[in-house]
Amino acid sequence: MANQPKNKNAQSKSTEEKVGPQRRLLRSRIDRKIWGVAGGLAAHVGFNPTLVRIAFVVTTLFGGAGLLAYLVLAVALPEDDGTGRPVPESVWVRLGKVVLVCILVALLLGVAAFLAVGSAWTAATGHGTVVAAVILAIGAALVVAAFVGDIRRRIIPWLVAGALLLAIPAGAVAAADIHIDESIGERSYTPSTVEDIPESGYELGTGQLIVDLRQLPWTKGQAIPVEADLGFGQLIVSVPSDVCVDGDVDAKGGELIVAGQISDGIGPEVNQGEPLTDAPQLDLDAEIQFGQVTVTDDAPEDVNEDHSGPWDDEENRDRYRAEAGSQRQVCGR
Known about the structure:
Elements: H1 4-17, H2 37-45, H3 49-61, H4 65-76, H5 91-124, H6 128-146, H7 149-175, E1 184-189, E2 202-212, E3 223-238, E4 244-258, E5 261-266, E6 269-271, E7 281-296, H8 300-306, H9 314-331
Parallel strand pairs: 1-2, 2-3, 3-7, 4-7
Antiparallel strand pairs: 4-5, 4-6
């Protein structure tokens, strides 16, 4: 009985020793994924290092605070030499190492973005078999690497990452049924006769496609069909103000502004229907993958200047409302 208080005091003292920091705050040399910041913090406060890493990731998703804090600590905290003491290293050396690693990460991200965009572009332009052949070659390399023990752990993760960077964008393009022409740049057409309009329509892969129809000889009761197909970019169609626009325009995503009628977002579509007057009529069949379509009575060179800013801006909204009202009078809708 006489020893009981002594045991309680010893137990209380042992419990008190476990509360608070367990060791000096240093970057861990052993428990590390990048620079040992999370492992060092976990050892310092006595937390599970996995929870600390999750906290960094979660806070990075909200404004990047977690990434910023990690980089600051990677520079500010010295590394553990294995005995609980800091490695004698200046802060400038640590800063140089962090900057070097950040540059390497940026280069890797650039390469990854290049592979992903290149894969999507190749598939969208109808050369998906090229992407498939490269992925099959990577698969063959994985099989070979699996039997080479010395380099297996180093090579296989990179091969798998490369295969995913190629397969996922190409698969997404195929699933979305995105097809674009290979042409790039700016194309401007101003037909002066109906015969100047190509039967296959106007096409462009990526860029700005301008079709100025104001010089055509429009007559009452006449309907002129025009087709336009754009992959990524901006399509501008200009018509006289006394021409009724019967537009059937759609996109995978973007903004459609057709004679004052607006549709935007994912899968926007404008279908205006048959006119009820004998006014000259433009039968427009246009499709884009992603971008903007503007059908207006303004000159093409005035579109980006006069229609700048979001469509729901007060000035633009008034402009489109007036154009839609003019079209209702011309078409009798």
